[in-house]
Amino acid sequence: MKKYCFGIDVGGTTVKCSLFLNDGTSVDKWEIKTHVEDEGKQILPDIAETVLAKIQEKGLDKGEIEGIGIGVPGPVEESGEIACAVNLHWGRKNIEKELEDMTGLRVKAGNDANVAALGEMWKGGGQGAKNLILVTLGTGVGGGIIINEKIVTGAHGAGGEIGHAPVNPEEKVPCNCGNKGCLEQYASATGIARLARKALEETDSPSALRKYPDVTAKDVFDAYKEGDELAEEVVEVFSEYIGRALAAFTCVTDPDVIVLGGGVSKAGQPLIDCVEKYYRNYAFPTCKETPIRLATLGNDAGVYGAAKLVLNK
Amino acid sequence: MKKYCFGIDVGGTTVKCSLFLNDGTSVDKWEIKTHVEDEGKQILPDIAETVLAKIQEKGLDKGEIEGIGIGVPGPVEESGEIACAVNLHWGRKNIEKELEDMTGLRVKAGNDANVAALGEMWKGGGQGAKNLILVTLGTGVGGGIIINEKIVTGAHGAGGEIGHAPVNPEEKVPCNCGNKGCLEQYASATGIARLARKALEETDSPSALRKYPDVTAKDVFDAYKEGDELAEEVVEVFSEYIGRALAAFTCVTDPDVIVLGGGVSKAGQPLIDCVEKYYRNYAFPTCKETPIRLATLGNDAGVYGAAKLVLNK
Known about the structure:
Two copies of one chain form a homodimer.
Chain A: E1 4-10, E2 14-21, E3 26-33, H1 37-40, H2 43-57, E4 65-72, E5 81-82, E6 93-94, H3 95-103, E7 107-111, H4 112-123, E8 132-137, E9 141-147, E10 150-151, H5 184-187, H6 189-202, H7 217-225, H8 229-253, E11 257-261, H9 269-282, E12 292-294, H10 301-312
Parallel strand pairs in A: 1-4, 4-7, 8-11, 11-12
Antiparallel strand pairs in A: 1-2, 2-3, 5-6, 8-9, 9-10
């Protein structure tokens, strides 16, 4: 009887590893360094080595192990191949096959943002849902779409690339992706800081934000909670962009729940309240009550989701 | 061995019926009247009667028949129930169970717009694709989302309600759904006519469109093909709205193909060319080359999709 599974989340600096019972109970959790040098050719062997060492350390039998789920920062195709992962210095690579050959265990790979969505559905803010949209508000804006408990990968691995939904045709400054007016330009930590700088430049109104030489998203939300008027304006603009974008996404997939994660979501319930106000204004009538919740797994969403990925099939 | 299936498409005026071989070959095609009086209570019995009569007429054995797929104008839940279908005067009803009881055949029900998407994927403009977005540009704007050959129904049956994606926060006039600035307000036949009336009012420039007391979407596209400048402006505005909305939808599900159907799509390739120009401008880089094609099944998309629905499981 299979009892255990591994969840691996590969980042540009560290690889997060977890050993789970198949019901999602965490048995052990550790990290190893990501060796990106030499086109990252050591990354998968390092993972194989640490997994095999853990099996030995815990005295497990391979027959008890469902497999290894792995999330990586890049678009993973249905075949388990990745075209490239810039942060890992990888070119085309069949992650599943390589790691299976090295470990003798079944491997299932997915894009890290999509995998995080699966984790939040399984054990996080979206627990109990089968259909979910996760929006990760970090340095950039990522996301993951879950339909019937499965990740939507898409034809080019771009399923859930919702940070690049066009939300402002008037924008003059290009996004990292080359387009102009992407959601990420307003709803990321960087985007909020930019909105704040713009607001500070455009008015002379007093604001606690003026004391920061380099205002951050956290500063904006802290000032917002203190009732700072200019911070309020910034949060309203940000929330309208994201609430309106969510309204467009929900009339595509109509999820049970929307989950907001990433660093910006540390602003907590005030963030949800403000985004929800705009979401409800724009959402299709039958979707207006779709709950918007905070992600709860933080940096562990990836290992949970990776484990669920290999349990899913 | 099962060999046949029925595809039924229920509209407010007629019920379209088709008998197919399971490979999609049409064996017979007919229509009956939709009796909406008395809360439409005769609709399902009429369908059962015509299906059973056809089985007898063709000398078929029920054992040879996979079942009946049926598309209805309303949100169908996973259970086969519908909460309401305004055009059929229906309240809550379990379509699948009722029609199964009446015919002794397996029944699978779906929303008509979603079912049409499945039809276009199976035998129409999206043939060969597993992931598709259908946008139906008719009196309103409907749609259907297919992922891995399955309809995305959503938590409230609102999957594919893309006509109500918010695309213009500046809009003052309400949409039929009660919100303001929905895609349908610009990209439907009614929406295009409204854009044309607005353009005619706002300028004095000469245009062939001035001769129509009540300008229609068809008039606009006819004049566009003749090089009428004002019609060109209107088509550009319309195409920007739809191209930009498609760019947002594709970063959610990343389909293999986008299919445009409905009455407005009769404008043909010039419509595709103009929408594609804006789509490519706004789409996420890896999705820029996603093909946009014309629907090819016209009013038959519903019966094909309904048949595929019952073949799917």
